[in-house]
Amino acid sequence: MADELEQLYQTTYQAVVRFLYRKVWDADRAEDLAQEVFMRALSHRPEKPRSWVFAVAANLARDEARAAIRRRRHLTLLSADPAGRPSSAPSADHMVEEDERQAEVRLALDSLTPRDREVLLLWDAGLSYPEIADRTGLAVGAIGTTLARARKRLVDAYERQHDDHDSAAHS
Amino acid sequence: MTPLHIPDDELHAYLDQALPRSRCVKLESHLAACPGCRARRDATAALRDRTTLLLASLAPERKRIPPSFEELQRRSAARPAARFAWRDLAWAASILLAVGVGYGMRSSAGGAPVPVPAGQTVAAVEALTPSPAESAPAIEVSDEPRARRERSVAPARDTAARTEDREAMLALAETPPPPRSTQISTDTLPRETAPTTGLWRTVPWTEAKEQMGSQPPRVDGVPVVEVQVQSGRDRQGGRPVTVVAQQLSSGELITTIEGPVDDVWALLSRRGDRGDTAGAETLRQGSRLLAVTGELPADSLRAMVRRVNAARRVQ
Description:
heterodimer, A: mainly alpha, about 0% strand, globular, B: alpha+beta, about 45% helix
């Protein structure tokens, strides 16, 4: 079991950090929570560790988001620098563009329904259809439908954001 | 050529390699003969790649080197050890207190009254109001600034509340089950768990159940570290006030208080007088009040109040 968890840690840690980052939007916190997830896995020894790890990560992220809202520590989407990135980087223009792009993608992601977003993030984290179904309670056959809708909505929402931003910049 | 075209969800599943091999063979033979489906497959592949690219831009910057797996194992192993050490200390403190209280009671029988600590574990005593300047609690729950006290009557149970309850249950489901009977000194707990007036007894879980006729209200699935019952206060012929202290796996202590409205409010306000600003959420039902307190966000406390109340209705 320890070997299995070690392998999972080596192969999945970064995916768990990414998954958490897209929920808490704080790089340091995402890493802290990812380590907490694996420490809990070590003490719980779950039967399906991969699916379990993402389930616990989602729960921790939800708790974190609630606490952050309550403490009013949440960064607003458009006014904040992305977490963990210095605001006075050398390639300022490039960084600004990247920040704007990231904010647009983030808004697009936030515009999805919680279920679509969860399925999309789990898929992007590398979970299989059965694992996503196990985590979300959806039927395996419904994952393809959900992903098809989520992908389309994400890209549509991003392009709308991007177009709005462009037209605002040129007006 | 297969007469029906390939639906979108199946194209996504095909590209995600989530279809059985036999189904893939059928799809591929259809794709070979159907230019329309081939075009849709290419569009789906482009959409899939675009999604991947967009999400990739949301990756955090790599700032820290993750700890080795061995380091995580060490940290994980250190947790239960620390908990056991704390429990052993609690027992030792409990025994010392019992001896001390016995000595104190013997002395008071022969002369001037001797103050008795609020954390009585052996017999019912009239507890004294401790001053805020008394010794610091053994468990420091959080280093973060304490939240302002928030008191509110929870709204009527609705669909959103039920969803919240389920979420709270999921978040708490990882904690170990409560022990059968735990009895420790309140001197090892933060002061907020120790009511300050009235005839209070710290009782084992089983005894509290017998005395109440049912389980004292508490958050299901979280270890109980102490149960206190205010004996002799059921003047309205109802159940006495109960205070159940529980510890979350993250270390935070929560307290569930249930009893006549005035008594529970008196307890809560006394905590306020002592400068304790931990949050409290309450739910009133007729002449009785249910309160959950702790260093947690108000919405978490509210969810716990609803859970406790729902569990009581089931009992």
